[in-house]
Every structure is written in structure tokens, then in C-alpha cells.
Amino acid sequence: xxxxxxxxxxxxxxxxxxxxxxxxxxxxxxxxxxxxxxxxxxxxxxxxxxxxxxxxxxxxxxxxxxxxxxxxxxxxxx
Length: 78
Hints:
Blueprint: H1 6-33, H2 40-76
Helix pairs in contact: 1-2
């Protein structure tokens, strides 16, 4: 990787955006867990929110790995 940091900047921004999306997914799941009335439909929504949060978490982990790998390449050459 050259001294141009535009690609690293892009990866960092993608990671930060993914983290913000993850935070929103967690808050949505929390809202559903705290909602009333208690019903099967509400539990189904809460469960789906959990799966959605997990999908977004995996997206964050992938973006973090790409960014960390690029940093290792830039600073350590591997």
C-alpha cells in the first residue's frame, strides 16, 4: 500500500458506518425486548431483531478485519 491513505480512510469510514448500523440494531432489539404488551407476535419481532443484529455484527467484524489487514499491510508489510 502506498503513502496514499484514501483506501485506509475509506475502510475506516466503512467500519465506522457498520458500527453505527450495529448500534442501531442493538437499540432496536432492546426496544423490542422492553416493549409491551407481551405477546407471541412481539416475541417473534424481538427474535427477528436478534437475528438482524447478529447479521450486522458479522458485517462489522468483516469490515474490521479488512481495515486491520490493510493497516498491517501498510505498517508491517504482511
